[in-house]
Design a protein that fits this description.
Maltooligosyl trehalose synthase, domain 2; alpha/beta; about 900 residues; Malto-oligosyltrehalose synthase; TIM Barrel; isomerase; EC 5.4.99.15; Maltooligo_trehalose_synth_4; 32 helices; 6-stranded antiparallel β-sheet; 8-stranded parallel β-sheet; (1,4)-alpha-D-glucan 1-alpha-D-glucosylmutase activity
Length: about 900
Amino acid sequence: MKPTATYRLQFRNGMTFDRAVGILPYLKRLGISHLYASPVFTATSGSTHGYDVTDCNELDPAIGGREGFERLSRALKDHGLGLILDIVPNHMAASLENPWWRSVVQWGEDSPFARHFDIDWSKRLTLPLLGGPFSQVLAAGELSLRLDRDNGCLALAYYDHAIPLDPRTWPNVLDVMGDAGPEEVLRGLAAGAGPSDAEPLREHVRNLGDDTAAAFAGRLAELSREPAVLEALHDSQPWQLTDWREARRHLSYRRFFEVTGLVGLRVEDEEVYRDAHGLILDLVRSGQVDGLRVDHIDGLADPTSYLRRLRADVGADTYLVVEKILEGDETLPADWPIDGTTGYEFITAIGALLTDERQAEALQDAYSDCRGGRADLEEERRAAKQTMLRVNFEGEVSNLVTLLRGMMGEHDQPAVSADQIRDAICAVIVAFPVYRTYATSEGMSAADRTVLEEAVAEARRFEPSIPGQAFDALLDAMNDTPTAPRRHSHGTFLARFQQLTGPVMAKAVEDTLFYRFNRNLAVNEVGGDPADVEIGPETFHSRMALRVAAQPYGLLATSTHDTKRGEDARARLYAISEAPGQWAEAVARWRARHAPLVTKLPVGPAPEPDTEWLVYQALAGVWPADIDAREGWLDDLRDRFAGYLEKALREAKLRTNWTDVDAGYEGAVQAYAAALLNGDNAEFLEDFAMGIRPFVAAGAVNSLAQTVIKLSAPGIPDVYQGAESFDLSLVDPDNRRPIDFAGLDRSLDDPAEDSGSRLKQHVLARGLSLRSQHPDLFTKGDYRPLQAKGSRQRHVVAFERRHGDDRAVAVVPRLPFALLQSGRSLSDAEVWGDTVLELSDLRPGERFVDIFSENDARSGEELSVARLFSRHPFAILLNRPGSQAR
């Protein structure tokens, strides 16, 4: 059964299977059809998100284990709810808690799991754990030998890390120690041990008596004072310890983005796929899991083949969506056997709809005036990508250069140097307009070939000094269908190139540019593009119409665990696009008031004007709507904002970053923000609250409009935990705070639904009830934009859904800031004046009734927006065939 509405629940951080059972009655009443769970498989100790999986085939004991899951499964069935699981096929934790990874570390290429991970075995396995070069760490005495009885091994220890030694190298230690204790027995067991028969050795170490173990550990400690012994032992291992900062240059395994603690899985291999999906497939086949969300599909070597295999295993009826960023008008590959995406592109479309495209230039001017110079979005985008390629992904690029030069014929190599090949690869990736293509050794689709060729053409235009032969070599490698001798290297190059373009896009745009280009933070969202603020509502309508054909069952997300800020914070900040002058005047006033708080550092002020613009805008988005009713709100906000600001400054990578922290700069900016939110700064706090009041009011309207559109658009509405109420959260970890489900349950029963978050929750519940009664209308139904007429036509968004005899019309206000300046409510008829909608093709006697207000429209009449919005400024009209109009 396909879902009609999903509810994303973040397990961990206090949320267990048993706690989830307790909220199911509430979710059922809200109108949810499927619980949509974050990863629930065993992850690293203390994991807050579950994407760092250590055992794909175990349900995490930390959240209730298999028994807790069984209780949740039964409760879901009792309430008539389905379950969608988030699975992570791209990577696992590179942690010794992961038994597969521990085996690889201990036995190297001889481990039965050596081919499970994406590791380059032409070199020793790199473990980027050190705080400096190995020689310095060794000289400083920070390494030691350790007896690890819990894991039954000898280990080389570095602070809390105890890296297991290959048992075949234990004699190198034991021979030096002599025969004073258990050494002789261990020497014999170790000499004959292998990956498949090492258990007797492990058991012997575990069962050493306390006194024997203590004496043995003491001799290991003595031996640890001999650097030459430790260095020789280290050099004999299948792994090598490296400075964690060097991972960007020298890493022997594929990582998830820049996270060295997550190692790539080779699920393109049938054996690896089976090993990694055993429990997942069992849960689907048992009927306990109704759908799967595939995390980071673009990270896989061959997403198309993976999805075909997964679909064959789970069957045609299992709901299947992928986390996939679609750029602009990009669509999903037609041959993917899935139901759609997780919905980031819907967030982007909403942002483009609810911002004022006519004021884009005025907002740009205001932003440029504040920062002291005009920021060119495209130049900033290119610069961010170049930084990623030259610095953060230097090692991945070097590997591509080596692969490509190895594929070139001898007559081609003298024509271009390795540096020129590197420059060409980087230039093409910088020009890439989408996350990736999906070519295999069997060929490339016409659409992907167009993407590649256009990227190469743009690269040639921007980098004319790079020899054409370098670009030709890249094109040949990507387009070629090689003969058998070249097939392996060709397939490897294709996979590595396509697995790199996505991370570069994500890290350069979402996690760099979006913290540098701060014109309007609301549109700096996952999968978004700040340039979209100039495209207007027509593009929104065209994208929604395409969804009906492309992914009628794709999720309609407005908040996720990865969004930069909550959906209602974004709704509030959209209003800045309507009044850039008023916003700029307020920011200038606040900056002038706090000019004495700016620290003058040798390299510039802290915060600089651009960061001040960011601070006031981000603060406006998160400013509480109920401060009068909450004690300690200011302290809470100050703490939350400090965490956000640290992330924003480091992700921008301009004056500080995660690997090279400028404590002086960060401290000055944090002190500035803390002073703003100090209770002694009461005059500013009052002025700020007054200054953002019109944006807050417009944001509340945008929030409800966004909700109504989500309820009516093609796809499946997805509710992120707690976002049925006002979601004014900041980026993670702020958006993963515990949710007051008891309060939400009480709120759903509260008949006083006319204010704030309660109204949003009630609108959502009523709309979800409608969707459950007419599922095909809102997924498969045709989508047709409706045009308003009259003096306020630009301020109305309306569209019709039609399936068979069922018809529905959604109507919401757009750009409410100016409408609210009169002081009137949007339910006041004078606001809308002569603005009307025309409902065409009505059958005789047919009428439309608003599900929220019971206002109706009769056959053939022009529908007055003022009348329609007389109770609430939004409507979903459902036809009642054969009914008589009132």
